[in-house]
Amino acid sequence: MAKSRDAAAPWRLRLVGALLGLVVFAIGFRLVWLHVVTTETLRGIGDEITIRYETQRAHRGLISDRLGQPLAVSTPVAAVAVRQRLLTDSAWAERLGNVLGMDPERLRSRVAESQSPYIYLSRYVTPERADQIEALDLDGIEVVRQFRRFYPAGEVAAHLVGFTNIEDRGQEGLERVFDEWLSGVDGIRHVLKNRRANVVRYVSAGKEVEQGRELRLSIDLRLQYLTYRALKEAVARARASAGSAVLIDAWTGELLAMAAQPAFNPNDMSSRRPERVRNRPVSDLMEPGSPIKPFTVATALDVGLVTPETLVETSPGRMTIQRKVIRDVRDYGTIDVSTVVKKSSNIGSAKIALMLEPSELRDRLSLLGLGQSSGLGLSGEADGFLPSFSTWRDLDRAVLSYGYGLMVTPLQLAQAYTVFANEGVLRPLTLLVNGETPKPVRVFKPETIRQMLPMLQAVTEPGGTAVNARIPLYHVGGKTGTTMKLGEDGGYASKRYISSFVGIVPMDRPRFVMAVVIDDPQSQQYYGGQVAAPVFADVMDDVMRLYDIPPDNPSDQLLAGGRP
């Protein structure tokens, strides 16, 4: 028996050794498998726990004026958010409230009442305050770095530039029109975050961010300030409901200023009410009235029906066409074509229009861009209306000749007058410095424009309707308008008017065109020459100085006596 037990002992030892060896081999094989074969798989599982994809917000492009002055910039700010399930510090509201300057109980109630697990407590926090919040090291409190749009010019350029929403997307104005250009493309990077969702370190670049591109406008911020201030003062002085002003460099088609009243502050969301946000120079439609008369006369001159000296009978100050009575302010008697423009005779304009072929005036107005989009693509821009009758009646032609029966915007009216500075050529408009535009269109012969310029100048001289548009040392031309305002019932409202003036300067080499519209003035003075023309004079006086334009009227008596 003893020998039998002794013989079995080595066998058991070998069995135990084999089992132990098998266990060691299995452990070793597993370690090799985990560390060599499945390394990438395990690393991916770990990364899913700690590595996150973080969006890098693209920096929205700068909007600046022609001289590089900023009109819209993106400034770094931060948002403060809370993840409810991660809140562990019972005093989080008190500690966070001290930094944010907010009531702790209000913070608690906002979080408690929210149905969302992720809540923004503040969208706009300065970088310095964001650093203070991160230093608190509170579980569940996150700081999200981002950008906020800021508008240095405030309400002065608000209607044109527009604004962005809370997600930094363009909502109005050029911010909306050029949103894709300005926005850029967000990037993505891989980051290692701790259990509080704070970034510990950056792992890899991922997708590179493409920053937004700069937008350089043709607007001159100096002239924008001057135009805005003069328009605001005029609207207040006339107790008007609204106003618009557009300033154009006719040689290039560049818009130098565009202002509207009432205004709003794009940096203050509470002021963005619809009636204030509307960009009136491109959205408000009106019957232009007398500023159309120079185009009526120019058309007749262009086809050779009249000359500046051609006499027109306007007595007794009224005429009837198809039972419609057309009146002048007074009986001008027999006057020449030049005086028709100077005195703004409705009867004279109507009789000249009736000499033309039925749709001839309408076709010229269409070439001038009236009743159609400017092509700038501005948000809220109205096309307007230009009649096109299959059978033109005499009355249709007559009322069109002095600016009724069509609807235009102040911008369209300003653009149309650029033909007087370009020898009869209409140059398309642009809002960009050296911006590409469509091919210019010839509307009138150069000789026609040379005949028209003295007539427009006479309007601003003694005996004309726009003496308040004159500026020292320069000859000025233009045309006033005072039209009855349409009422809600479709008829004309009693004692409510739209007052306007469109002017050009200097007359020896016309370059700058400005249209001013005052909507519904309630003061005793409401004629265009009284309420709109002074805005032109105030702004253009400074334009001549800033652009160093040589005087064309050095003997001007305004230097001695001041503006009339």
Radius of gyration over C-alpha positions, nearest whole angstrom: 36 Å
Low-confidence stretches: none
Number of strands: 21
In total, the number of domains comes to: 2
The averaged pLDDT comes out at 87
- According to CATH, the homologous superfamily of the largest domain is DD-peptidase/beta-lactamase superfamily
Q: Counting H and I runs of at least 4 residues, what is the number of helices?
A: 21
Question: How far from one another are the termini?
Answer: 143 Å
What is the share of helical residues?
A: 25-40%
Main sheet record = 5 strands, mixed
Characteristic terms for this protein:
alpha+beta, five-stranded mixed β-sheet, 2 domains, elongated, Penicillin-binding protein 2a (Domain 2), five-stranded antiparallel β-sheet, 564 residues, 21 helices, Beta-lactamase, 21 strands
Structural summary, described in words:
This protein has 564 residues and is α+β, with helices and mostly antiparallel strands. The protein folds into two domains: 55-216, Penicillin-binding protein 2a (Domain 2); 221-264 and 282-561, Beta-lactamase (3-Layer(aba) Sandwich), CATH 3.40.710. Helix content is 36%, strand content 23%. It contains 21 helices and 21 strands. The strands form seven sheets. Strands 2, 3, 4, 5 and 10 form a five-stranded mixed sheet that branches. It has a five-stranded antiparallel sheet with strand order 12-11-21-20-19, sandwiched between helices. A hairpin with a 5-residue loop joins strand 2 (63-64) and strand 3 (70-83). It is elongated. The model has no long low-confidence stretch (mean pLDDT 87).
